[in-house]
Amino acid sequence: MKCQDPTNGxxxxxxxxxxxxxRHILTSxxxxxxxxxxxxxxxxxxxPDLLPLKPKRSSRNPKVYxxxxxxxxxxxxxxxxxxxxxxxxxxxxxxxxxxAQVGGYIRERPLKVSVQPKETWWEDNILRxxxxxxxxxxxxxxxxxxxxLPSDHSLALYRSTADVIRKNNLQFSLIPCIDCTSSLSxxxxxxxxxxxxxxxERDCIAKSSKGFPIVSGFCVEKWDSKRxxxxxxxxxxxxxxxxxxxxxxxxxxxDNGLLAKSDIASIWSGDMLAEVPGMASAAEAVRKLxxxxxxxxWAQDFRPKDKWYTEAHNSLLFRxxxxxxxxxxxxxVLILTWxxxxxxxxxxxxxxxxxxxxxxxxxxxxWLKSGSPPEIKREAIYYFHRIQKDTAEYGSDQGxxxxxxxxxxxxxxxxxxxILSRPGTxxxxxxxxxxxxAVGGGVSAMTVPLAPGRPTFRLKRNGVVLxxxxxxxxxxxxxxFQDFLYRGGGSARWL
Length: 495
Description:
This protein has helices at about 40-45, 85-90, 95, 120-135, 155-165, 190-200, 225-240, 255-260, 280-290, 315-325, 355-370; strands spanning about 65-70, 140-145, 175-180, 215-220, 245-250, 265, 290-300, 300-305, 310, 330-335, 380-385, 395, 405, 415-420, 425-430, 435-440, 440-450, 455-460, 465-470, 480, 485-490. It is an alpha/beta fold.
């Protein structure tokens, strides 16, 4: 299934193992010793309300970007029951059985879209994607570029997205991100520079606080700094000043010379609670070099293809990442990711997480940009839980066990998050009973142990049920394959 023109009705699927695992090494750059959350604070049965934050206001206008990786709303403009996502990425037998022993390549897909006219389906779906991102408080996509061949999906996507933004006069920007773990390693510096020049000449190119076009790279330390210097030199000779935005996978290997040439810097990290506090120290160190820090924000990280996952503790990781961004007065935030289903890190509204993370993202994005918690126009509750415990039995078709990464402790809990205009009582009902908690206005959360069945969530005030919501997902005692993707849902948008 490969074709050069997306409007012909198919997209070349991403190749398994094409990109290296996106892991991170932070400890040599920032000591995390003594900075971990206490187990009681982070993992208690009833999570405390988020502390009110008083970030220092900045004259700069904070920006929120989301990393866009490969997966469009539709790969082939077919009905969802018969499309490539269903037949190849979700099915254990898909992709020639490549992921049969882990239950399939991914555990959820983008929300289903109807079949569109052949001439416009590709751009129609891009427009839908952008509008969902804007509704989530996102200012632009940080698009992963995997190759520069005419048939490359990421290149076609970048160009098509830029065209959609122009045609629809959207207030939305793009950052080209050169993926140094891809086949671009064998592409000449001139070819890469020429693409970046093309991208920078587009009106939708994102601009830094200095007003310069932003160009980015993922795992930049994988390439010799001289290679990057040659690329940047050629781009600036053609279009003038630019703002380089490197993202490091391993900060031990961060080249000081390359950092000195950067206006913004970040690390592909933060997918575990223990890493979040250390980001403040990383931000301070980078800022001392005169470079803006981009705060990475993760929702979760579950990779069946690699047989591991990290523990996000329902939505707590996402909220703590955002809380950190606000507390350090971040001027740039990068959501990791908008749509990387192969790593289970997506926040794009999807069949499993629905709009839960996107809605919460909109709340914190507005808080970051305004400097204070936003006005709540409509109260809402959201739920997050897995559909099985880590100890749940699985079938004989699964090969190696999918395991928790880096010695963390697993969380088998159901979470309810409320966004309220004034105090109320929230509750979770499971097959084990009902637990209630009085909460204040703003964002609050509570958890109960994971129990079989379909939990119900409520908001009460003065004894009257104002919102009642049952989970769309059944918690199972056993399943054919392990599934550690957090599901989510909500009653309504808060804004």
